[in-house]
Write a structure and sequence with these properties.
Elements (H helix, E strand, L loop, with lengths): L7 E13 L3 H8 L12 E7 L5 E11 L2 E5 L5 H9 L8 E12 L10 E3 L9 E5 L8 E2 L2 H4 L25 H7 L10 H10 L7 E6 L8 E4 L2 E11 L6 E7 L8 E3 L2 E6 L3
Parallel strand pairs: 1-8
Antiparallel strand pairs: 1-4, 1-5, 2-3, 3-4, 5-7, 6-7, 9-12, 9-14, 10-11, 11-12, 13-14
């Protein structure tokens, strides 16, 4: 997605959760896994929103608009559930939650932004790409493609995005790279912190980690990964390279099979670390 290839981009309106109020900054700092105190206006970061017992809720992007106004961008369709999770702990605090529409744009190339564009964290930066939010519909240089196509570009890296998180996962199943982006181990307490800190300190793979896999044969969502004919995992997201020669996927895999020779319908599959 770099080099002399033309810039591809996509955009779609997304619902964001806007958190507003005099206590908005302090409240979110007490609820999210990332340290928001280091952010200035128009700056953003990845973060986890965990269940109180420490299992996964959401992987989100957090954008500071002002000290009393924040935007949260997470998995499409889960905005109301995210608000419900935050409201459980919004006791005697001056904060409100509302949905706000923004254009979410994804590009294979980095570009100078002006006007109402605000850059947000993106794993595509590893390949020269970029993501941002805009109030009005963007019109960028390059070729516009379907948003669904652009939403799978991160699978080719391979890396995780907000849509790849499953409720009730153990956070460390997301992999070390995602945890490093989304978790601060030096900030104050937040719901679920104890489990994350304990698992990180153990430095051991969780029972069913997410991994990247690659094959020269086609892969499909739901396909079973096998070792010697035994089912050891499944394919969650798939993307095909631009030249059509390689398929990459995000998969959930048994810990015991991470270093094993994998197959899908007898085709060899190679494990690739998530970045």
């Amino acid at each position: 997605m770099t080099g002399d290839a033309p810039t591809l981009w996509a955009a779609q309106q997304r619902s964001c959760v806007r958190v507003v109020g005099a206590d908005a900054s302090a409240f979110l700092q007490s609820q999210l896994s990332q340290d928001l105190a280091v952010l200035h206006d128009a700056e953003s970061c990845w973060s986890l929103v965990l269940q109180p017992e420490g299992r996964m809720g959401y992987l989100i992007r957090v954008l500071r608009l002002a000290s009393d106004s924040w935007l949260l961008l997470g998995m499409q369709g889960c905005e109301d559930d995210l608000i419900a999770r935050l409201k459980r702990f919004s006791i005697r605090v001056k904060v409100t939650f509302e949905l706000e529409q923004r254009w979410h744009a994804i590009s294979t190339s980095s570009m100078s932004l002006s006007g109402d564009f605000t850059e947000i964290p993106s794993v595509l930066c590893q390949t020269g790409g970029q993501e941002f939010l805009a109030i009005s519909e963007p019109d960028l240089a390059g070729e516009r493609v379907a948003y669904e196509q652009a939403s799978a570009w991160h699978v080719l890296i391979p890396a995780l995005d907000d849509a790849d998180v499953v409720q009730d996962m153990v956070p460390t199943e997301l992999g070390a790279a995602t945890i490093a982006r989304a978790v601060s181990f030096t900030k104050g307490c937040y719901p679920g912190q104890e489990l994350v800190a304990r698992l990180d300190a153990r430095a051991a793979l969780p029972p069913q980690p997410m991994v990247g896999v690659e094959s020269r044969a086609p892969m499909s969502v739901g396909a079973s990964l096998e070792v010697d004919g035994n089912d050891v995992g499944g394919v969650l997201r798939v993307a095909q390279s631009a030249d059509g020669q390689v398929w990459r996927a995000l998969a959930s895999l048994k810990r015991s099979a991470v270093t094993s020779e994998l197959t899908i319908d007898r085709a060899v599959v190679v494990t690739i670390p998530l970045t």
